[in-house]
Amino acid sequence: MTNQQGRPLHDFNVELEVYSGPYEWLLALLLNEEIEIFEVPLREIVGLYLDSRSMERENYLERDTDFAGSAAALILLKSRMLSPVFEAEDHQDEETELSPGQLVEKLTLYLKVKRGAEKLRECFVENSGMYPSAHTLPPRPGKLRVESKKVSLAVRRAFSRLVEPSVSHLGPITVSIQDLVAVIQDSLSRGPLSYEELVRDMDRLHSALAFAAAVSLSSRGEVSLSQPEPFGPLTLLPEK
Amino acid sequence: MSESPSATALVEAILLVSERPVSLEGLASAADLSRAEVRDALGKLGEKYSRERSGIVLRNVAGGYQLATNRACAGAVERFRKEARPAPLSGAAYEVLSCVLYLGPMTRGAISAARGVNSDAVVRSLIERDLLAEVGTDRESPGSPALLDVTEGFFIAAGTNSRDDFPPLETLVKPEELDRVRERVEQSRRPSPVPEEES
Asked: pLDDT higher for A106 or B41?
């Protein structure tokens, strides 16, 4: 038997054209996409809840909170489904694979930007701790300027679904990160390990997973990663 | 001091009360001096407020002049003001700044594309720190995204006057490094060994 005391909405039932029964089950069916959110009149549900609401109940505040939370989630879900698919700027080129020339161009630009960042860091460090002679004046009170274009773009972003990235190019995954973590840990027991050595006989997917495993070990503090220059050889060193 | 203060005194007073760097023209206009007189006054102030001798230094940053505390005295100033120095920027933040400095003004999407990772959160923190600002919109792109550029605060923090003070992007990477990148891309494009079939 389930503990119904911890679920304030367990006794709230709804009678709709598309569904009749406990509200909690309706939520489950919606989440499992067994009922289309388009077909569910949210306004009616709110009306039914308000009719059933009573401040005489012991847990009415908890009940209201739970209902407000779930109703807000349903509104967000429905509005997202009704909004057109919005393609984020940085998803535009994902579908097309880069040619070697384009990849070199992209990496070269990134390398330059990275070097620029190193120079900037030096400049910032050299010029830190210099405080201006005058105090900062508080900003003058002014009118808030609302740009309708920016507001509409923000609303579109908030209520839109992002395009799911395609994973059709990935084959079936036959190895887990945990397996590769074990392989790395075993190899590291014999000393520093070159990433290139590690992935020598692996395909691209396994190499990517091996990299994820190395990063995972690094974040757990079990391994340190050494790469003296961008895109240069990567070495895994056991943490002492 | 005599009734009519010297050009140096006038320039010094204006710089003392200005939080932002003041341009040569701004100083000349406020002090009612010629540009030559202001230049001369700045020369004298530069000697007076040298890093070696004074707790205050004269900086030539963001296209203007500014009086600021000497970096060597930062610890004492921070203790007195009971405030810590702003946390240093992350590597990602410097990369975003570098992108905008060399390739900007540019949109958030273009920054992310250049770095290969979403940079929106980093951009947000740099805007909060007054190192980046929205300066317009890219009307050619769908949705007219905002264009970002580095701010006056950026040039002050970097101790520079303008973009011209930074080494050109092309000189930042050695040709042999570029060759190595090409080589590695070619290597990665070679067909990878076929994994053994599982029995």
From this structure: B41
Residues of chain A with Cβ-Cβ distance to B66 below 8 Å are 132-133
| B194 inside domain | no
Q: How far is B17 from chain A (nearest CA, A)?
A: 5
Half-sphere exposure of B24 (CA within 13 A, CB side): 13
Enumerate residues 6+ apart whose C-beta is below 8 A from A215: A225
Instruction: Please report the pLDDT score of residue B166 as a whole number.
Output: 93
- The answer to whether A110 contacts B177, with C-beta atoms less than 8 Å apart, is no
Return the exposure string of B49-63: e unless at least 16 CB atoms fall within 10 Å of the residue's CB, then b.
beeeeeebbbbebbe
Tokens of A240: 């002492």
Q: Residues B43, B124: one domain?
A: no
Q: What is the pLDDT of residues B155-178, one digit of tens each?
A: 999 999 999 999 998 898 888 888
Model pLDDT, residue B192: 60
A114, A123, A204: residue with CB nearest B95: A114
Looking at residue B2, what is its pLDDT?
A: 57
The CATH number linked to B48 is: 1.10.10.10
Q: What is the number of structural domains in chain B?
A: 2
- Is B69's CB within 8 Å of A90's CB? no
Give the DSSP H or E segment for B57: strand B56-61
Query: Do B17 and B63 share a domain, yes or no?
Result: yes
Q: Compute the average pLDDT of residues B171-191.
A: 80
How far apart are alpha carbons A96 and A99 in whole angstroms? 9
Query: Choosing among B192, B196, B199, which should be mutated to test the A contact, i.e. which has the most A CBs within 10 A?
Result: B192
Overall average pLDDT of the A32-60 stretch: 85
Model ipTM over 0.90:
no
ω into B105 cis (within 30 of 0):
yes
CB pair distance less than 8 Å for B17 and A134: yes
Which has the minimum average pLDDT: A164-178, A223-237, B172-186?
Answer: A164-178
Partner B, chain A 1-40, Cβ-Cβ below 8 Å: none
* Domains detected in chain A: 4-83+98-126 (no CATH), 173-238 (1.10.10.580)
Residues B43 and B111 in one domain: no
More confident residue, B156 or A239: B156
Asked if the structure places residue B151 within a domain, the reply is yes
Domain range for B65 is: 7-80
> In terms of domains, do B101 and B59 share one?
no
